[in-house]
Amino acid sequence: MRDIRDIIFHALEGKRFRAVLTAERAGVLSGVDSVRIRAEELGIALELCKEEGEELSHGERIGTLVAGPKQIALAEEQLIGELAKASGIATAARTAVLLADGRARIVSGSWKKMPPQIKELVRRAVLTGGAAVRIAEPPMIYLDKNYIRMLGSIQEALRACAVFSDDTKVVQLRGEDGTVAQETRAAVLGGADILMVDTGVREDLECCLSELAAMGCRERIKVAFAGNVKLTDIPELSRRADILCIGKEIVDAPLLDWKLDVLGEEC
């Protein structure tokens, strides 16, 4: 099927136009590598005056592009899409990190659940914003509820990965294998390094912390908390947990809006 833009712009064949990209709200720039690749594929000459991770002001012009009329129309659809989603995520991640103020590690692992087409863009945006994409750096073993269910218990799950002596062992606590206090004790005795209280219930977090304190090992065991954590919860929770795992508030952050304005024909 013929693209109707070929008909609409027929009289402009051979002409090139200059346009500018402007951020419509303040935030953090992300998606730079993707947008440069896409611009090259479309035959657009793109110049950006900002780099990945730099702060943006409301109404700030961050780039110019020169292209034919059809390419300009495509740029409004495709280049802005690359920047809007990535910059929105990076902005939310940066906000979360600032709210934690160094007290807790901010992690957003939900990029793994994104469609393959945008998974890497989302992952990069989270990192650009200053958040982590994993609870701990590799080598790491994450024993989630399904590992524990299949292996029979927290103790058996930890026993199964004992051969990986140098790996950080993370155990998900959900109150399924006993109370959260019982799960905490079982995980510590089994050799866990990080406990993930993945219920979103503050009382469960406090229960885990109290059990660790009673066992005298709070200082050496890190505690992560997840489950519908909002950005507004971060100042308080970062004083209790060592790691805050935030999914939707970051990866589903609103788009950072952009606009593309044609300035005129390029001479």
CATH topology of the largest domain: TIM Barrel
Q: By helix and strand content, what is the structural category?
A: alpha/beta
Could you give the order of the helices and strands?
HEEHEEEHEHEHHEHEHEHEHE
**Dominant shape:** elongated
Give an overview in words.
With 267 residues, this protein is an alpha/beta fold. The protein has two domains: 4-97 and 254-265, Quinolinate phosphoribosyl transferase, N-terminal domain (Aldehyde Oxidoreductase, domain 3); 132-245, Aldolase class I (TIM Barrel, Alpha-Beta Barrel), CATH 3.20.20.70. It has ten helices and twelve strands. The protein has helices at 4-8, 32-42, 69-100, 116-128, 145-151, 154-160, 180-190, 202-215, 234-237, 248-251, and strands at residues 17-23, 27-28, 45-48, 55-56, 61-67, 105-107, 140-143, 168-173, 194-197, 222-226, 243-245, 258-265. The strands form three sheets. Strands 6-11-10-9-8-7 form a six-stranded parallel β-sheet. Helix 6 (154-160) packs parallel to helix 7 and helix 7 packs across helix 8. The mean pLDDT is 96.
Descriptive tags:
elongated; Aldehyde Oxidoreductase, domain 3; TIM Barrel; 6-stranded parallel beta sheet; 4-stranded antiparallel beta sheet; 10 helices; 267 residues; alpha/beta
Summarize the entry for a quick read:
The protein is 40% helix and 21% strand. It is built from ten helices and twelve strands.
